[in-house]
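Quick one: co-fold with 5-O-phosphono-beta-D-ribofuranosylamine.
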Amino acid sequence: LRIGILISGGGSNMAALVKAAGEADFPAEVAVVVSNRAGAGGLAKAEAAGIATAVIDHKAFPDREAFDAAIDETLAAHGVEFVCLAGFMRLLTEGFVTRWHNRMINIHPALLPLFKGLNTHQRALDAGVKFHGATVHFVRFGMDEGPIIAQGAVPVLASDDAATLAARVLGAEHRIYPLALRLVASGRARVEGEKVVCEDMGE
Ligand code: GRF
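Sure, here it is.
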């Protein structure tokens, strides 16, 4: 399965997916990494891993539809069949989300449906939750909505601030994103009635 990864920043989740996809038995390959920001640190990581990259600057387009169409053009040029959003900080149009229905997943640094949106770690601390974490889900038009594939929970420590909690959550992200992609790419996880059903993982 040919994967396109969309990033905006450091790309540590992209790097985790690229590493996992390099394993012999992984049911997917990364065809291209696309960033909406030319300065994204993830671009250098992708190039170092020998992955094709592209920059599509959202500021160069008159509207979201034109930007999304340019992304689609690059994805098509690389034969992409499935999209992974990894630290991608743009809301996609309904048309794009529809075109990639059940073929696009995202990672969110919270245990959805809790803490959709931004600043999830400070909000978790402010809410006094004892567990926080990350969620991989199929993308739907509503921000951070969609059928959940995998989650990873981490404890919130009394000593935590947003930075220490974010770092612990990022570690969980790097574990669950490759797992989630493996489950979906192998066909073991699929959407039924807006829920993800997972065949026995045999573990
Ligand atoms: C991180 O905050 C992560 O939790 C979220 O996007 C941000 C950047 O991640 N998914 P990455 O290092 O660019 O993958």
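If it helps, The first helix runs from residue 12 to 21.
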